[in-house]
Design a protein that fits this description.
Layout: H1 10-18, H2 21-32, E1 37-39, E2 48-55, E3 61-63, E4 66-79, E5 82-95, H3 101-121, E6 126-130, H4 143-159, E7 163-168, H5 175-180, H6 187-194, E8 199-204, H7 208-212, E9 215-220, E10 230-235, H8 239-251, H9 260-273, H10 276-289, H11 301-311
Parallel strand pairs: 2-6, 6-7
Antiparallel strand pairs: 1-8, 2-4, 3-4, 4-5, 7-10, 8-9, 9-10
Helix pairs in contact: 3-4
């Protein structure tokens, strides 16, 4: 049902929204009787946690003769309570053509999983990805490698008694709502409305193959920060360790409500990716001085004029 009121009647809008409170209370009762509600408890705090993330521009930089993009990767390790970080980046260029953004996305997922596997090899007891554990494949053939590495990551973590988890900042899944018979709400909205701090909804993963390996999906409400529910996927040695993982993530929430290592690794990866314009400008400069001056221009002439004008102090 859509509520339509005059825009200057905000009091009326607020009143109509507040009238939905009984429905929210009814949803809370449904959650409590579902068998999916978990009250989190602590106790497990791994010595070595590693968080990994990548970032890249929403679209490549279009230049005359080629397109270029950049993938930034960051990793934050927390060892015995002390954090250390590292970051690197790769330039992706398509000569005489248009760089496929789907390829860029697949390349980023491949690099994430390679770094996560490296963290496991270095002794990380918990590896946290910013996003799904097994990504949704696109059309690029490179996605096959991303999926293969994802499966290897799960296998190696579980065989060593470790945990691999994915924290999803943006999730539109409805699998948990479907389990509860709730229509019209995403899992995140449902959990945000019904959970209290320190509580979670926990269920076997909606992907049958992952569920068969003991992987779960969950939504928890952090102990501090924004009261919005956070969606997590996790592959753990047992269910009890998954519950302890959720408590750990909830207790490490920053101002955003997300675990602070995820906030940090996200900002570091985005900082790397933000260098793409500088990289493109440097490529233009070197091409203009080298053997391919005909490629040394932006595809938009106004961008070229603006850059030259600013170099000479013109507006």
């Amino acid at each position: 049902m859509v509520i339509v009121l005059e825009a200057d009647d905000l009091g009326g809008v607020a009143g109509r929204l507040a009238a939905e409170r009984p429905r929210v209370e009814g949803l809370r009762g449904l959650v409590e009787s579902s068998g999916l509600l978990v009250r989190l408890r602590g106790g497990w705090r791994p010595r070595f946690i590693s968080a990994v993330d990548t970032a890249f521009p929403k679209s490549p930089v279009y230049l005359l003769g080629f397109t270029v993009s950049l993938v930034g990767l960051a990793r934050v390790d927390v060892v015995d309570g002390a954090a250390r970080s590292r970051a690197r980046s790769w330039v992706l260029a398509e000569p005489l053509g248009e760089l496929d953004q789907d390829y860029v996305s697949a390349f980023a997922r491949v690099r994430e999983r390679m770094e996560a596997l490296a963290a496991l090899g270095e002794g990380a007891e918990l590896v946290v990805l910013d996003g799904e554990i097994v990504p949704r494949a696109g059309r690029s053939p490179l996605w096959g490698e991303a999926l293969r590495l994802s499966e290897r990551l799960v296998d190696e973590a579980l065989s060593a008694g470790r945990i691999v988890a994915g924290v999803l900042k943006r999730s539109y899944s409805r699998s948990m709502a479907a389990r509860l018979g709730v229509e019209g709400l995403t899992d995140r909205v449902l959990a945000s409305l019904t959970l209290r701090r320190g509580e979670a909804l926990l269920a076997p993963h909606s992907d049958e193959e992952l569920a068969g390996r003991g992987c779960v999906e969950a939504l928890y409400k952090p102990l501090r920060g924004l009261p919005a529910a956070v969606r997590v996927e996790a592959c753990c040695p047992d269910r009890g360790r998954c519950v302890e993982l959720l408590w750990l993530l909830a207790s490490e929430a920053g101002a955003s409500g997300l675990p602070w290592p995820i906030d940090l690794v996200d900002s570091l990866a985005k900082r790397e990716a933000s260098k793409v314009s500088a990289v493109a400008a440097l490529l233009l400069s070197r091409l203009a001085r080298g053997e391919a001056p005909q490629l040394g221009y932006a595809s938009n002439p106004q961008e070229t004029m603006g850059r030259r004008g600013s170099r000479h102090g013109q507006g």
